[in-house]
Amino acid sequence: WVAKLASKNTLKTNLKNIYYDPSKIGQSEINEIWHMMNFNQGKKVIAKISRYTFERKLFWFRWVGALQNTQIPIEIIWTDKDPIAVPQMAELIKQETKNSRLIWLPNLGHFPMLEQPKQWLDCLMLSLDRFSSKELK
User: Fold this and answer.
1) What is the C-alpha separation between 85 and 7, in angstroms, rounded?
2) How many CB atoms lie under 10 A from the CB of residue 51?
3) How far apart are the first and last CA of the chain?
4) pLDDT band at 2; cut points 50, 70, 90
């Protein structure tokens, strides 16, 4: 019901709250997201496609169990100011997994690839370089 009753103004407020720097999302982006939400009656199904928020808890042992059993090195790239995927989640995943390393992206919110695309990409590429050079072993 919340999604069905949401307005563009509500969307704007919510998006600006999950960016560490609210100035990083502009009105044109908000307009596009609003358009996508409403396309083909999207607001009617948004709750169904947002089930992952409940599934995180429901399937925690299954998902983390797979990470616990892998021999593949794991790089966890996380932001320290994300109000949705809070830092404690990253710390717990790090604690629960072997062969893992936690890399923090400071002063970024839920969408680091949009807030600071170069910083996010540089971090990702460095992780891939370490993986390919087997430095992570």
Assistant:
1) 24
2) 10
3) 48
4) low
- Between CA 130 and CA 27 the distance in angstroms is 38
* SS3 assignment for the chain: CHHHHCCHHHHHHHHHHHCCCHHHCCHHHHHHHHHHHHHHHHHHHHHHHCCHHHHHHHCHHHHHHHHHHCCCCEEEEEECCCCCCCHHHHHHHHHHCCCEEEEEECCCCCCHHHHCHHHHHHHHHHHHHHHHCCCCC
Q: How far is CA 136 from the centre of its chain?
A: 23
Q: What are the phi and psi torsion angles at 113 (to 5°)?
A: -70, -15
**Cα torsion angle, 37, 117, 9, 6, sign:** positive
How many whole angstroms separate alpha carbon 33 and alpha carbon 14? Answer: 12
74-127 residue pLDDT tens: 999 999 999 999 999 999 999 999 889 999 999 999 999 999 999 999 999 999
- Which amino acid, one-letter code, is at 123? C
CB 100 within 8 A of CB 94: yes
